[in-house]
Automatic annotation (TrEMBL):
Residues 2-227 form the Glutamine amidotransferase type-2 domain. GO terms for molecular function: carbohydrate derivative binding; glutamine-fructose-6-phosphate transaminase (isomerizing) activity. Pfam families: GATase_6, SIS. Its EC number is 2.6.1.16. One of its GO terms (biological process) is protein N-linked glycosylation. SUPFAM superfamilies: N-terminal nucleophile aminohydrolases (Ntn hydrolases), SIS domain. Keywords: Aminotransferase, Glutamine amidotransferase, Repeat, Transferase. This is Glutamine--fructose-6-phosphate aminotransferase [isomerizing]. It comes from Candidatus Woykebacteria bacterium RBG_13_40_15. It catalyses: D-fructose 6-phosphate + L-glutamine = D-glucosamine 6-phosphate + L-glutamate. Residues 288-427, 454-590 form the SIS domain. InterPro entries: GATase_2_dom (IPR017932), GFAT (IPR005855), GFAT_N (IPR047084), GlmS/AgaS_SIS (IPR035466), GlmS/FrlB_SIS (IPR035490), Ntn_hydrolases_N (IPR029055), SIS_dom (IPR001347), SIS_dom_sf (IPR046348). PROSITE patterns: GATASE_TYPE_2 (PS51278), SIS (PS51464).
Length: 600
């Protein structure tokens, strides 16, 4: 959802530092943006509708030889429309404090009514603005502006924050060059640099300053000023001590480099990600296989793209290891937890580790004594911290909203895990290595030009269908999702045998249908289904190791055994990317979407 970035330090232009931080976080929301900083001891706020990436500079008066602070926000709208007034930061009645927020304040209506009765004036339609006025009221209780700083400021903020219900992250800039913040659910992390301190919704934005990071836990808050960072327990108000985590990430891994878009860059990074998993993940996967073997009832869950990886996992476990694993969408699993026991294992898949539907289900499972294993990309995320067993995806920063390399990373780990359960981990690693080699061929210039040509041919269609059977049913679902997300063409994925049970009525002359046909037990059946669709006018696009006369357009993909589902999806990723370009859409920032869904 929304992105928060704050800076306290000795830079001559703190707003410029925040501008660069927010550009890194733009994937979290790009409806509007805003900044707050101090000039002559007064809060200055600048905000507007639009993408932060379009903002070249922020005009502010440089402050030298003293600590300065600035706070910014990039918004994904929840309460209130996309307007300048609803953009963050928000201020109190006297414009003394500036506040930014990620989450939803579930009881904001009753809080706002009470504040209006007290005479507070609201300037926006957001739920966020109530927090400013709550802090304003708490500060008045001190009866002294001189106490409006340091620990006393945090106390006023803490008491205000505790009145909120829901999952929220809030940060407030004071006129004393201090930032106070707190979280329950929505992510916040703190950076400890050399005479400069940072707060961010994602550690990737902190990397230009420091690799020493504290991932804030739920019901924790912090005060940041010239003395450094002081952590607090929100319930007791007591100071707490936490050692920072040292990040191994590099700044370069999150930059655009030679590519036009992050989506394309991240597609091209996939062979490297898979090779890294093959070289380094054997021991971690073997350890997790032991956990799966000892469980009584294993469940695999995910949302969106991660759900398709989880569904593929259930097929991989069945096909390779002859093991039953229950699949569920993360958003629905919370309603299926009654049968969990302390012997159950829940494997949760997530790129961000902050997806609220996954977190809610995991917390419910933990209440019932189930063990949690996770495949997650973000070190220190909520899912990572709440898992008994975890494997980092190792995909590196993924900044395009549309997931690509995190998906193939999940598939690779699950394929090797299934082989480990069959006591043949080496076989799984070899197949993933083959998939990596296959992707390298897909990413060669001639092949990419062929995909681009197809995108041009079918970009004017309103509907595209995808079909697959067995392991490639999840591939069909994921391919359709990629096309929908970035090109806005209605795309729908089907199990190959199900199309004739009703949905084939949608096929008209020229309707594009993408057919995933690997060399496995599904080949003859999926070709038969494609033939039925073609006889009704469908334009058949074959993604397969073998050319077939039913294909009107063939995109060859080398066979990689059970790991073919990894290489085949890359074709769909490329097609979705070029369809977006043909339709003048931004593949990195699809409308109405954000990278991490942290609100219900």
């Amino acid at each position: 959802m929304c992105g928060i970035f704050g800076y306290v330090g000795k830079k001559t232009s703190a707003p410029k530092a925040v501008l660069e931080g927010l550009k890194t976080l733009e994937y979290r929301g790009y409806d509007s943006w805003g900044f707050a900083w101090l000039e002559n001891d007064k809060i200055v706020v600048k905000k507007a509708v639009g993408k932060i990436s379009n903002v070249k500079t922020i005009n502010s008066t440089p402050v030298r030889n003293s600590f300065v602070a600035a706070l910014g926000h990039t918004r994904w709208a929840t309460h209130g429309g996309v307007t300048d007034e609803n953009a963050h930061p928000h201020t109190d009645c006297n414009d003394k404090y500036a506040l930014v927020h990620n989450g939803i304040i579930e009881n904001y209506t009753e809080l706002k009514k009470a504040l209006l009765k007290k005479g507070h004036r609201f300037k926006s339609e957001t739920d966020t603005e109530v927090v400013n006025h709550l802090v304003e009221d708490e500060i008045k209780k001190t009866n002294s502006n001189s106490k409006d700083s340091g620990p006393l400021l945090f106390e006023a903020f803490r008491h205000s924050f505790k009145k909120l219900t829901g999952l929220n992250a809030v940060a407030l800039l004071s006129p004393n060059n201090e930032i106070v913040l707190a979280k329950t659910g929505s992510p916040l992390c703190l950076g400890l640099g050399k005479e400069e301190y940072l707060v961010s919704s994602d550690a990737v934005a902190i990397l230009p300053y420091t690799k020493e990071v504290i991932f804030l836990e739920d019901n924790q808050g912090a005060l940041i000023n010239s003395e450094g960072i002081k952590l607090y327990d929100l319930n007791s108000g007591q100071v707490i001590n936490r050692e920072p985590t040292h990040l191994e990430w590099s700044i370069g891994s999150s930059s655009l480099g030679k590519y036009a878009h992050y989506m394309l860059k991240e597609i091209y990074e996939q062979p490297k990600v898979l090779s890294h998993i093959v070289r380094n993940y054997k021991d971690a996967i073997l350890a997790l296989s032991g956990v799966v073997k000892s469980s009584y009832g294993t469940y695999i869950i995910g949302c969106g793209t991660a759900a398709h990886a989880a569904l593929a996992g259930s097929y991989l476990f069945s096909k390779i290891a002859s093991r039953h694993v229950n699949f569920s969408f993360g958003s629905e699993f919370i309603y299926l937890t009654n049968f969990l026991t302390p012997r159950s294992l829940v494997i949760a898949l997530s790129q961000s580790g902050e997806t609220i539907d996954i977190i809610d289900s995991v917390m419910e499972a933990k209440k019932r004594g189930a063990k949690i294993a996770s495949l997650v990309n973000n070190l220190g995320s909520t899912l990572y911290r709440n898992s008994d067993y975890k494997i980092l995806l190792g995909a590196g920063p993924e900044k395009s909203v549309c997931a690509t390399k995190s998906y193939v990373s999940k598939l690779a780990i699950l394929a090797i895990l299934a082989s480990a359960l069959a006591d043949d981990v080496v076989s799984g690693m070899k197949q993933v290595a083959k998939a990596s080699e296959s992707i390298e061929e897909i990413l060669r210039k001639k092949y990419v030009e062929n995909v681009k040509k197809l995108a041009k041919k079918i970009s004017s269609h309103d509907h595209i269908y995808t079909i697959g059977r067995g392991l490639n049913y999840p591939t069909a679902l994921e391919a359709a999702l990629k096309i929908k997300e970035v090109s806005y063409i209605h795309a729908e994925g089907f199990a190959g045998g199900e199309l004739k049970h009703g949905a084939i009525a949608l096929i008209e002359k020229g309707t594009p249908v993408i057919v995933f046909a690997p060399f496995d037990e599904t080949y003859d059946s999926i070709i038969s289904g494609a033939t039925e669709i073609k006889s009704r006018g469908g334009f058949i696009i074959g993604v397969s190791p073998k050319k077939n006369q039913v294909f009107d357009y063939w995109l060859p993909v080398k066979d990689a055994g059970s790991a073919s589902c990894i290489s085949q999806i890359v074709v769909a990723q490329l097609l979705a990317y070029f369809l977006a370009l043909e339709r003048k859409a931004d593949p990195d920032k699809p409308r109405n979407l954000a990278k991490s869904v942290t609100v219900k």
